[in-house]
UniProtKB/TrEMBL annotation:
Main localisation: membrane
Protein name as it appears in the record: Transport permease protein
Lineage of source species: Bacteria, Bacillati, Actinomycetota, Actinomycetes, Micromonosporales
Keyword Membrane in annotation: yes
Keyword match Cell membrane: yes
TM segment ranges: 32-51, 71-89, 110-136, 148-171, 178-199, 205-226, 246-266
Amino acid sequence: MTVTTSANVSTAAMSLSRGRIEVLQFFRDRTAMVFTFLFPAMLLLLFGTIFGDSYDETGVSASQVYAASMLAYGVLTTGFVTMGSGLALDREDGTLKRLHGTPLPVTAYLMGKAILVLTLSIAEAALIILVGVLVFDMPLPDASHWLTFAWLMLLSVLTCSLLGVAVSAIVKRARSAGAILNVPVVALQFISGIFIHPITQLPSWLITVASLFPVKWMGQGFRYVFLPDSMKSMEAAGAWELGRTALVLGVWCVIGLVLCLATFRWSDKDR
């Protein structure tokens, strides 16, 4: 028991240490900060300004809907793209190979990456919410909705991060990672009700396809947190479906974990 506890403490300490290194490295790269951290807020300003009219039956502006929905986009790009491209780069430049020769376990390495993603996602969410409140008059939710925001954010970050780790195995070159990973990201935004709202404007079969993936449920969950209850009529099922949101994200967490265990390699030679 003592040995196990000591090992757990050591892994936790190494995870925190690795996470600190990942965060410092990221914030030293100004290009990455702009395109990863600021891009969702820039898109929000663009969409919110162009499509800012109110929905007649609710009085809620389209810009406020985009502000809530864009939180899902921010988490997806930060978790999926940052994690996937980061692992591909670490594998290509030999970072993973060097770390493999140290006492750092794979769990601590991946937890370090997860700390980076969580840190960026929270900061990015704060920026998007700030823009939504100050620029588009999006009201802040009450305490119970903030609790929903907390578990939704954690599940969303975990899901996207695990899938990012898994998909990094198919990225052969780090320079092509962005192009490869952004294809499903952009496609899912359009069919999941993030860039197009209400989602009921889409064909029913396309909504069914989107419902198989986590992004649709992430966007719907964040809209529940920040929008009035009258807006649920514009969702595909005419309801917020928080229970189903948690279930779908939980299932994708399991799928992502299984894929991670099956595909993670310290170097290309291990494939």
